[in-house]
Fold these 2 entries.
Entry 1:
Amino acid sequence: MASEHYVIIGNGVAANAAVDILRQGDPDSRITVISREFFPFYYRHKLRFVISEELQEDQIVVRPPAHYREQNIRLRLGQEVQRVDLKEKTLYLKHMEKVHFTRLLLCCGGWPRIPEVHYTYRHHFTIVKGLSHAREFKEKLAGVKRVLMVGGDLVSLRITETLLRMGREVLFLIDRDSFWPLTLTDEIRTEFAERLTKHGAEVLIDDEITGIEEVAGIEEGTSGYEVTTRREKRISCDLVGAFFGLVPNVEFLFSSGLDIDRGILVDDHLQSRNPDVYAAGDCAQIWNPAINNYWVSIGWENARLLGEVAARNMLGESATAGAPKESALDYEGLKINTSWWHIYD
Amino acid sequence: MTELNGIDVTFRICGAAGDGSLAAGSFLNRAAARMGYHIMNIDLYPAEIRGFGKSVAHTRISDRPVQTPGSLADCLVSLNDLHAITELDTLAEGAVILYDSKPPNYVEEDEAIAGFIEPGMIGYGIPLGELSSIATKSARSRNIVALGALSGIFHLPSEYLRDAIRERFTRKSEEIAESNIRAFDLGLEYANTRLVKADAIDFEERVPGARDDVVIVSGNEAVARACLDAGVRLYAGYPITPATKIMEILAKELPKQGGVVVQTEDEISAIGHIIGGGFAGKRSITATSGPGLSLMSEFLNLAVMAEVPVVVVNGQRGGPSTGLPTKTEQSDLNIAVFGGSGDSPRPVLAPADVTECHKLTVKAFEVAEAFQTPVILLTDLFLANRVEDITWPEGDLAIWGRYENRIADPVAAEDFKRFVITPDGVSPRSIPGTPGLHYPATGLEHDERGMPEYSPENHLRMTEKRYLKFNTLRDAWPAPVPEGADGELDVGIISWGSTIGSAREALEHLHTTDMNAGGLFPRLIWPLHEDALKEFSSRSRNLIVAEGNYSGQFANMVEAVVCREVIRITEIPAGPIPSERIIEVAGGLNR
């Protein structure tokens, strides 16, 4: 086992759960973690506190780089895998370095999803997925009076609360089909709207963007947007926050020979069609015999469990990813199961 | 050593031989010095002569005078990742790494420096090779592209860098100069348009005060220039690192002044030549390093015994034997002071910086002539090769004439005693060929006329004579003036040679604390100014001696004078002792 080199792409909760199991189960192995983000493993759900400056960046760190050094784990941050050659068991990094592996775990997470219908406006959208986005969001907020939130996902509700607390005006445009990962019933949509309104946000239901134009901002000397909607409303705002959920980050795997659908197709042992390649977390599309379909997990705890399962199997055990642990979005008493999804547009 | 309130930035440009890292460093030095910044540069390269060894240009740029090159770098430029990876432990916290983001081929695992950039570092990837190829149709100007990028990232005034580049390449051809300017501009443009600045180093396009009189000079170049200024007529030497540069310069320049350079078959021959030159009344010098000085020991004794003025420059490097040819050390003090048979007193001088390399070389000739003795000038590899911004001393060289160069009066020809006992030990000497003033010059003990004479009484008289003039020199040489705080000191720091810079920098830091600290930095290392040492010691609760050797060679000499145990900072780190080390030791002392 001493010759194993486990390489994990990603540095989120699934990756770190896997790292712990791998190091414990194979103390002499080489372990390398490669992350596109140039920041150590952090609590994503605390990004909104970085935006509001209630927390400094280092206060949301789960594990500093020193932890990896102590565990004899090579941590490569800010490095991007461009291509995977499964035959040669080699990763090709963007900065022109090859990294060889014996077993590969893909925990590469997801990218902010922009629905096709809104793709034209992507340059006007501000998103919050990772720390760099949170930094950008925070910087942009400096001259901002009014924010338009479009789409809607689990993160957007919390960010809306944060913005309102920071004294910004928020207009929330809830579109039934774009509230990821759910298709909202009229009843739930109304309930969300009521709660957002109670917090001080203005809410537009069942409408969607049909145009965005960059104009002078609400505050003198700033720039902003003039947004038009299907219901012919004209909305002036300084920033458009777009929250349409995530899509698995798998583009770099297209030429690898792995089976890719929305995410990386793996069996319930989280093993891909290549016996030495596993996937866990947001990027994995996991076969679930119970529903006779693939599913993708959501949430910190699910990702952690999947990371552990993948690592155990990489070590030669036989662990199964069972039904995802239930976790519910609880928004002011409105509870919705949000632990997994398996369809979207 | 980044200082955000002022400019104090240390760069390391690292590549394989032929990548142009040293050239890039020299452009950076030249430009920064002309802007009015103070610089200190040291080029580092391996001992082995081969095509692809690592070479590093280490440059510190500051808006205040600098005493040391700084121990940790704020910015590493990688022109060769395999070599640059070995430099990672020389980086300060938050250091910037600039690397080629598009090398022509994929490299194997752990062979790309970008793979080692961690939180706490800032990486800027620039397609150095690609931009160079666009500008010059070859990747050879990657170093120039990198300079352009540095200018853009850190807001270094670009016109000064362009001038430095143009000056160098115009010597080759206008076309080469312009293509390299294009390479520079592409690097600059890339940094300005494609990189997001994430570091805190900012020169703000500031030019503290453009200077035309400034020259960028190494210790070796200063010694060579001093030889020309002092009217040297003979240089004889055998090539050796780090002294060879002196011979290279003089081989070109000395004949223009009517002088002669002889490359001898070995160091014994070299000192033999210059003893002949000195005996003939011509200023003569050789330059060597430890192994060469060892070979010269016996001829040095001849110069002592025959009272012949010669100057020997010894650029110290790691020893013993061939040792560490390209690493600095201060471990030749014992052989300089004590090496030789019998009681063989010879003055030893040690400059602290490049300016003093010039001044003390001139002074060495003066002392050699006035006291009719070999003089050893101890530099070291760090001092010999490091580059500083200096201005040449003004024309009159005030130190001329301080000591009398006693030449015998031909009137005395009837009873000429070349080694006559005088009150100060110095006897008027004659220049060969002067009618009537001929005498035997021998390594044998002799009487006042130079005739061999072995009686114990004569030997004692002549030994006392040789030591008397030695003591006369000590009395004539200004005693070292203590630096720093007056009165009782929590810590006194004694150092010599190139370590003085680190000691001074440590003192500057200690003065920002509540510690009462002072320094004593002799340049005349032998004979010692014993009274000055005793006085300084008596005021110092703790006494540190800092020097770049293992056994504490100067500490041993100081302890013998001050009759107390000193705290030794005796390190051989292959580079200069960092000031931080002295601060650390001083900071941990009881007060």
Note: The two ends of chain B are 28 Å apart (CA to CA).
Entry 2:
Amino acid sequence: MNHSANPRRPAQTRRSPEPIFWALFGAGGMLSALIAPMLVLITGIAVPLGLLLPADAMSYHNMLALAQNPLGKAILLAVVALFFWHAAHRIFHSLHDLGIDAGNGARLIFYGAAFLATLAAAGALLLLGF
Amino acid sequence: MSTNEKTIEIEVLRYRPEQDAAPFPQTYVVPYSDDMSVLQGLQYIKDQLDGTLSFRWSCRQAICGSCGVMIDGIPKLSCKSFLRDYAGKGRVRVEALANFPIERDLVIVMDSFVEKLESIKPYIIPKEPRPLSAGEYLQTPAQLDAYAQYSSCINCLLCYAACPQVGLSPDFVGPAALALLFRYNSDSRDGGAAQRMPVVGAESGAFHCTAVGYCSEVCPKGVDPASAVNQAKGASVREYFMGFLGKGGGK
Amino acid sequence: MSASDPRPAAPRAAPALPGVAGNPRRPYVRPMAGWWLRNPYFVRYMAREGTAVFVAAYALILLVGLVRLAQGEAAWNGWLEALRSPLSTILHLVFLAVFVFHTVTWFEVLPKTMPPLLVGGKRVAQSAITAGAIAVAAAASLALFGIVWGLTR
């Protein structure tokens, strides 16, 4: 039942690393709560089906222009990275909720995945140039 | 008792450590009237049917915090819950508060809570020594309002029974203790926030909370521990990123 | 307590082990397995937490899109084509429903995470904060749609 990652010292005296992850979780949760439904509607339904928005709204040239614009870059990186950090934190805690003893190994897997996704998104955006 | 008296079945989760390997349900048929609380039903059992039944109670008026139990699976004060509200089904289930070890029948082991309560220093720590001659502290209504709701806690532990994180991680400081921590940190007379914030930021601290929110739903005193715990998290995040400045707690 | 108190001393609050001589205490710890099925409130909580899996899946689709975009026009068009498949449309409809639930539940928690909001010296009800935040999300979504519509028509 003891979930503690480090059994050497009692949990009451070890500082939790959670503030960093909780802040990223909160930022991603807030951003997704504000715009994720509309973003899905645009990228996954309206544009692919040509409803409400023109079917070529996400053409290569439009998206290249968005991804090469500094503000566009920042928005794309924020959406992808923060959504990942939000999800990683929640899923990590859900493992604990389901009774799976999720210690530092699980932390490494989930936060590591979010970190790699952030790197991949940043790398793609850098490759796309300015 | 007269023959036309109404009755209800009270199913109690019994546990007698000296003879039972595990808890088991035992049902009693109890005559009741519309003004009878679940606690009075338990008292009827103890006085008239089975003197071996153990449960805690004291004030019978929702202020001592002793009589918390699970009633049909929901943490409630048994003195503030009425048998008439369960009459429709003809039976009501009573069990010791969830997330605590059972000492006997409806009595829980609450030592861990007392330790957690002590750890948050639940008393005003003055900012500087203050002689009696300096007179009383003065507070504006707004300063009082910053903590008043959290000071209504009666330590009944319903919020602990409502919190899955307490059950999953027995180390977790938990809702009531963190609400009281936040209550003192939010008090304009208090200067002890720096001593209390390490409890919030520890591995056993506020970040165990996943904002389930059920603690605030079951609180019989309107304390809203979920809001205190999550505001304490925010304070801990600010403190974390600002370094150990010794500033924390709500303002 | 008087010295002549005939009651035996209370046992020290140590976790007694079964069979320890002289100590009849044997606290019983109930299992947690399946805890979230015991109360509809917890079922809703787990559904709320479960939205994260869908957020991760959508973020992964977007990340793949970014990588495909960086790989050039043909790769990007392949990604766009995949989005037009019926399976993708169904998946995104599921995302849409789940994300609306995420928005509502996120803003239900919001008032618990902030200091009381005072208007005219009175606390704004938590339900009003939730409703206001959902209205802000709706406005932000409309603004986002308006920007995309304005830029692409």
Note: DSSP finds four helices and no strands in chain A.
